[in-house]
Structure formats: structure tokens, C-alpha cells
């Protein structure tokens, strides 16, 4: 192994001598490079190879290349690149080849090699990397697309790109993304040939030796790709994706027409088809802006186009009366309403249209829960409070078991200071299952705290503890404790704490809240703190190290504390804590003793 490493280091000497001779590196720096290279070489020649060692070596060589590049620029020296950079590049490629040969499944390693080749313009080497990578990772369409794009855009080889796409489609015959990019590539090829032909004609050159097929120039190859893909890939999303690509090229009107006809014929009942056809009306018939076009004329023309869109949507919801179709219609209306405009008339018209569509969808019983929320928000933003109340009532009728719908209705009533809030809360609790009612009870007690008497609020808290599930009641107990302390003082909260402790489960925050309350008292008694800590430890002592440490801190810092109890508490903690928590406790306790915690 040592001989091999010595040989590799000797191979570096010519490039290092050149670096010193031309003044890019000093003698001291050359020695440092040799020492570092020696250490890195030993790591990659071991029996047990590690990927990190190869990555570190490659990164070192890349950094060296970047440093040489900067120093060349600084001193203005651009010679001897073959003797210096070429040697380092060759070594980096060799390292990448060894690493990817050892860890073939690491795609990121392959991509790093690809990125390096692109950065240093190593086209011949990159072609080899792609070839090897695709032989191993033929199951990844994204890699095929990357390779084909490089062939097309960098090497300007349409034939190689086409060959790669055809190979990829043998492995992935139903991959939409592959077909889309293949389709795009054929259109780019056609556009490139059209530009070449135009330039030759403008230069009045003889086209005899160049064969420009009219079919290829008109995108016939892309049409073949599309037809083949349409037979294998179903779904309107693919058709729309291909159509959006075709629209990027100005010579594809015939192809666009074919895709559009296929879309309407095969997917006439799909909401996305209707959505596209309706939105298309915004683009059709648009006036070309001129210097004499007035703002009023622009507004009028935009209003007419939007009306045409809505006419298509109206036909769509009649033909395909589904929830998804109404969602497309409403989404379009909301998008238009949210667009900025200086015309108040146009904005008002968009608002009225949006509210009308919401109402029609509601009357058809095809309005989803999220859309009800959007409808309500729009009404509240438009100060239509009475209509908002009607909408929330309708929403809770349609989705009577939805907690979010009831919350939405209750918040509107609370905001409007309605007299029906209590009745609505009762109705909500009756309809919604006990599991999941916590948000409703939380909202109810929040409202009651600011509106009702203390007695009514306390009765509501007690009722919530009985009505919620044990897991949800934990949160209500914390809120109840806090509210009693704020409104009735220490003595009552202490009695409540004792009472609630008997009604498990309780949370750690519940105990911490009571400890905090005790510490806020002028005559904070350690006897009470011990009681609260002991109760908390019975519940959470086996799973929480901080609780034990806080107990020890109180004994050490409280005026009535007994530092001699700390040893006993430490011993109990070591016995009670589970698994790795013991080690965690010991390290934290050590920090506490040394004053670092």
C-alpha cells in the first residue's frame, strides 16, 4: 500500500513543480499540499473504505483548483494549464470513478460528478458519466431527462437526445414527465431548424446540401410523440401539460388544435377540461393595447372576457354538476376578485358574481367545507354580517359533526354579540361527538369568562370536565386552575388543585402551574411546594428529569428548604428514572453542582 501511495505522490510532483516555477504557489505551500495529499491518500487506500474519505479528498482537490484559478486571475498568468489543471482534473475524475464504483446506489455521488464535469466543461467525461449512471440507475426518469437535456442544450445534439428519450421510454413506457420532455425536445429541434433555414435564406445561401423536411419544420415529430403518449397515458392533466408546452412555440397552431379537440372529446366530463376551456376565454379576443386605448375601454373589455369565462363555467356546472366543478368555478371567481384594479365598478361586479356563484353552489348542495369558510370570510370582509350568520347556519346543517364549522358559526355570533351564543353552544355540543369537542369547550369558557358571572363560568368549567374525554379534560383542568386563581385567589385554587388531583389524568403543566402559583405568594411555604413536587413525581417521576432537578433547586434555594434532602431526592431519581434518562439526569445534576445549570 505504501508503495502505491508513494507512486501517486510522485505523480503529483510535475504539476507541483510547475505551480512553484510559475509563481502560483510558494515552496512552503507546495510542501503543505504534499502533506495533505499524503494523509488523504492513506485514507482512501485502506481496506475498510469510507465514502466520507473520498468526498473529503475530492473537495480538497476542487478547492485547490479554485485557488489556482483565483491566483491565475490575480497575477494574470494563463499558461501551463495542461500540465497543472489537466492533471488535477484527471485525478478528481479518477476519485469519482472509484467512489461511484464502490457506492453505486448513491445517486447524490453521481450527481456531484455530473456537476463537477459541467463546472469544468469536461464534455467527453460527462458523456461517459451519464452512460454509466443510466446503466445502473435506469429506474429513475429524472436522470434520463437530465442526460437528454444536456445532449440537446449543451452538445446541441438532437439525435443523441432523441436516442436517450427512446431508451428511457423502453424502461418507463407510462411516465408522463418523460413524454412531456421528449415532446418539448422535438419542438425545440423543429424551432432550431426553422431558425437555421431562415438565416440561410436571408443570407441567400444554397440549401442544396441541407435537407430541411417540411414535416419536421412543422413539428410532425412532436405530433407523433403526442399521439403515442395519448394512447398510453390517461388523464386530463397530461393533455393540459402537453398543450401548455405546445403554446410556447409559435408554429404549433395545428398541433394545439389537435390536442384541444382530443381533450374535449375524451375528457368532456372532467372539471379540469371545463376549467381550461373557460379560462381560455380570457386569452381569446384580447385587444392589442394602443396609445389611444382608454382605461374605461380596457375595463369594459376585461369585463366582457370575464363574462365569457363565466358563461362557459355556467354551462360546465350544468353539464358536470359535481363538487369539483363548482370548486373550479369559485376558485376562478375568487382569483378575479383578488386581482388589483382601479375600477370600483369592476371590483363590485366581481364581488357580486363571486357571492352569486357561492349561493348557487350552496343551493345545489355541492359546496365543500373549505369553500364555506372562504364564503364566510368574503362576507365578513364585505361587512355582510346578516348573510354571514345565514351561511354559518347552513354550513352547520350540512356538516353538523364538523367542529370547525361550529367554531366558525360561534365566532361570528360572538363577534356580532348575538343573544343566541349560549343556545348555539348547546346545539354544537349536542351534535358533535364527545371526542374532539375540546375546541368548542375552550371557546365557550373563553366567551363565558368575559360575558357571564363567575358562578356560571365555574359551572361551565365543571361541566366541561365531565363532558370531555379524559385526554381532553387535561387541558380544561389547566385552564380551570388558572381562571380560579385569577378570580378567586389562593385559598380556593389550593382546594381546587387537591380536588382535581384525585380526578386523573392531569398534566405536568397542571402541577407546574400550581408550583408557580405557590411561588408567587408572599409567604411561599416550602412545605406546600414539597407536596406539589411529590404529587407531580408520583405521576411523571419516571419520565421527566427536569422535575427532579427543579425539586433539588428549590430545596437548595428556598429559605425554608433543606439541602440535606437533596441526597435522598437524587437517590430516588436514580431508582425511578427509566433507561437513558438516568444518564441525562446524572450529567445535568453534575452541571448543577458545579454551578453551570
From TrEMBL:
Localization (cell): Nucleus, Nucleolus
UniProt keyword Transcription, yes or no: no
Entries under InterPro entries matching the protein: HAT, TPR-like_helical_dom_sf, Utp6, UTP6_C, UTP6_N
This protein's name: UTP6 small subunit processome component
A Pfam family assignment: UTP6_C
Lineage: superkingdom: Eukaryota
Family membership: Belongs to the UTP6 family.
Protein species of origin: Taeniopygia guttata (Zebra finch)
SMART domains registered for this protein in UniProt: HAT (SM00386)
Amino acid at each position: 500500500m505504501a508503495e502505491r501511495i508513494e507512486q501517486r505522490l510522485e505523480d503529483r510532483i510535475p504539476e507541483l513543480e510547475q505551480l512553484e516555477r510559475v509563481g502560483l504557489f510558494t515552496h512552503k505551500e507546495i510542501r503543505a499540499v504534499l502533506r495533505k495529499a499524503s494523509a488523504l491518500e492513506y485514507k482512501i487506500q485502506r481496506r475498510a473504505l469510507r465514502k466520507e474519505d473520498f468526498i473529503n479528498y475530492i473537495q480538497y482537490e476542487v478547492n485547490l483548483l479554485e485557488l489556482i484559478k483565483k491566483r491565475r486571475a490575480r497575477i494574470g498568468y494563463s499558461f501551463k494549464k495542461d500540465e497543472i489543471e489537466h492533471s488535477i482534473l484527471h485525478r478528481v475524475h479518477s476519485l469519482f470513478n472509484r467512489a461511484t464504483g464502490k457506492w453505486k446506489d448513491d445517486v447524490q455521488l453521481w450527481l456531484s460528478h455530473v456537476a463537477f464535469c459541467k463546472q469544468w466543461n469536461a464534455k467527453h467525461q460527462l458523456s461517459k458519466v451519464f452512460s454509466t449512471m443510466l446503466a445502473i440507475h435506469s429506474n429513475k426518469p429524472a436522470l434520463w431527462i437530465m442526460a437528454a437535456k444536456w445532449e440537446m442544450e449543451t452538445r446541441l445534439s438532437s439525435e443523441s437526445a432523441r436516442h436517450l428519450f427512446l431508451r428511457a421510454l423502453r424502461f418507463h413506457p407510462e411516465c408522463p414527465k418523460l413524454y412531456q420532455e421528449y415532446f418539448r425536445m422535438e419542438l425545440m429541434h423543429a424551432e432550431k431548424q426553422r431558425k437555421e433555414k431562415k438565416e440561410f435564406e436571408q443570407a441567400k445561401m444554397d440549401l442544396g446540401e441541407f435537407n430541411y423536411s417540411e414535416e419536421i419544420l412543422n413539428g410532425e415529430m412532436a405530433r407523433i410523440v403526442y399521439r403515442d403518449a395519448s394512447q398510453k397515458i390517461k388523464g386530463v392533466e397530461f393533455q393540459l401539460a402537453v398543450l401548455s408546452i405546445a403554446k410556447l412555440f409559435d408554429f404549433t397552431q395545428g398541433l394545439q388544435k389537435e390536442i384541444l379537440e382530443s381533450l374535449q372529446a375524451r375528457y368532456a366530463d372532467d372539471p379540469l377540461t371545463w376549467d381550461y376551456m373557460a379560462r381560455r376565454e380570457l386569452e381569446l379576443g384580447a385587444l392589442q393595447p394602443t396609445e389611444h386605448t382608454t382605461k374605461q375601454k380596457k375595463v369594459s373589455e376585461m369585463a366582457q372576457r370575464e363574462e365569457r369565462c363565466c358563461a362557459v363555467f355556467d354551462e360546465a356546472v350544468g353539464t358536470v354538476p359535481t363538487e369539483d366543478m363548482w370548486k373550479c368555478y369559485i376558485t376562478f371567481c375568487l382569483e378575479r376578485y383578488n386581482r388589483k384594479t382601479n375600477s370600483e365598478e369592476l371590483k363590485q361586479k366581481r364581488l357580486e358574481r363571486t357571492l352569486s356563484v357561492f349561493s348557487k353552489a350552496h343551493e345545489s348542495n355541492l359546496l365543500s367545507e373549505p369553500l364555506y369558510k372562504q364564503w364566510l370570510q368574503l362576507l365578513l370582509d364585505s361587512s355582510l354580517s346578516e348573510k354571514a350568520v345565514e351561511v354559518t347556519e347552513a354550513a352547520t346543517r350540512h356538516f353538523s359533526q364538523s367542529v370547525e364549522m361550529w367554531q366558525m358559526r360561534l365566532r361570528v355570533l360572538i363577534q356580532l354579540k348575538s343573544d343566541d351564543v349560549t343556545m348555539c353552544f348547546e346545539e354544537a355540543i349536542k351534535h358533535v361527538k364527545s371526542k374532539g369537542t375540546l375546541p368548542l369547550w375552550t371557546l365557550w369558557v373563553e366567551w363565558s369568562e368575559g360575558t357571564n358571572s363567575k358562578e356560571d363560568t365555574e359551572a361551565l368549567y365543571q361541566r366541561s370536565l365531565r363532558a370531555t374525554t379524559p385526554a381532553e379534560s387535561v387541558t380544561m383542568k389547566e385552564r380551570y386552575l388558572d381562571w380560579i386563581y385569577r378570580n378567586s385567589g389562593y385559598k380556593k385554587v389550593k382546594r381546587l388543585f387537591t380536588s382535581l388531583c384525585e380526578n386523573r389524568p392531569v398534566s405536568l403543566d397542571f402541577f407546574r402551574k400550581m408550583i408557580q402559583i405557590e411561588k408567587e405568594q408572599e409567604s411561599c411555604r416550602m412545605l406546600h411546594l414539597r407536596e406539589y413536587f411529590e404529587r407531580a413525581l408520583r405521576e411523571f417521576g419516571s419520565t421527566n428529569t427536569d422535575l427532579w432537578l427543579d425539586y433539588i433547586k428549590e430545596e437548595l434555594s428556598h429559605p425554608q428548604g433543606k439541602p440535606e434532602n437533596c441526597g435522598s431526592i437524587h437517590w430516588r431519581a436514580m431508582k425511578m428514572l427509566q433507561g437513558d434518562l438516568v444518564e441525562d439526569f446524572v450529567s445535568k445534576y453534575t452541571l448543577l453542582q458545579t454551578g453551570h445549570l
